[in-house]
Amino acid sequence: MQANASKTMWQIPSLGKWPWWIIVLLSGGLILLYLILADTNYRETFFYLTQGLQTTLRITFFSYIIATVIGLFVGLARTSKNPFLYHLATLYVETVRGVPLMVLILYIAFALVPFLVDILTSMGYAVDIRSISMEWRGIIALALGYGAFEAEIFRAGIQSIGKGQMEAAKSLGMNYFQAMRFIILPQAIRRVLPPLGNDFIACLKDSSLITVLAVNELTQMGRLRRAATFRAMETFNVVAFLYLSMTLVLSLFVRWLEHRLKIEE
Fold it and tell me: How far apart are CA 64 and CA 253, in angstroms?
C-alpha cells in the first residue's frame, strides 16, 4: 500500500493533461535550444548576448534591492499617524506611479542627476558628472520607480495585520517601533513575499527600458547585434528566449512560494 502511495505521489501526469500553453512554450524553447546548439548564427548570437545578460541581471538585482528598502520605509510612512510623513510618502508614491517609467528614467538620467551635480559643484564639492555612469543612473531610476510600487505592497501587508496585535504589543510595554519590528513586520513581510516576487519579475523585464541610455544590457546588445549582422530574426528570437527563460523560472519559484506560504498558514 505504501508503495502504491509513493508511486502515485511521483507519477508524472500524461501529456494530454498538460495545459496546451505549457506544451507550446516547451516546444518553442526546445526548438530554439536546438538552433542555438546546431546553427552557427544562433550560437554566435547567444554567446554575444550573454554579455548583456550579465548586465541585465546586475541592474535588476541592485535596483530591486534599493527599491525594496525605499518601499519598506515609504510603506511605514504611509501607515504612520504623523501627517508630515504620511503626506510626504503619499506625494512620492502618487507622483512616481503617475509618470511612465521610460519618462522617469530619462528625467533622472539627463535632468535630475546633472542638476544635483551642479548643486554639489556650486557648494564646493568636486563631482564629475562622468563619474556617474549611465548604468547607475538607470539603476537609480528603476529603484525610485519600483520603490513606489513596493511601498504600496508593504502598506497593504502592514494594514492586513489586525489592529489588535499592535494594541496587544503596546499592552506588553512595547513602543511603536518595537511592535513593528517584533510583531507586525515579521507577519507582514511573510504575506507580501509573493507580490514582491512578482514585482521582481516585472523589474527584470522593465530593465530593458534602460536601453534608451545606451547601457549594454540584453536588449541593447540585441540591437547592436542586429545592426552589425542584419539578422533580426535570429537576434530577437534569442533575446526573447533569454527573457522568457528567466521570467518562467522566476514565475515558477513565486508560485511555489505562494503555495508553501498558503499551506503553512
Answer: 17
**pTM here?**
0.86
CA distance 214 to 206: 15
Joined grid coordinates for residue 168 = 496587544
Q: Are 187 and 265 in contact (CB under 8 A)?
A: no
Q: pLDDT of 7-37, one tens digit each?
A: 444 454 555 566 777 788 788 888 888 888 8
Burial class of residue 38, CB neighbours in 10 A (0-12, 13-18, 19+)? exposed
Q: Which residue has the cell 510603506?
A: 75
Q: 236 vs 44, 60, 97, 195, 218, CA distance in Å?
A: 13, 20, 30, 29, 10
Q: What is the grid cell recorded at 204?
A: 527584470
- 260/265 Cα distance (integer angstroms): 9
Contact between 101 and 206 under an 8 Å Cβ cutoff? The reply is yes
Please say whether the structural domain 51-264 has been given the CATH code 1.10.3720.10: yes
3-state secondary structure of 82: coil
Amino acid, single-letter form, for residue 40:
T
* Residue extents of the structural domains in the chain: 51-264
What does the longest C-alpha to C-alpha distance in the chain come to?
81
CB 137 within 8 A of CB 106: no
Q: How many CB atoms lie within 10 A of CB 83?
A: 8
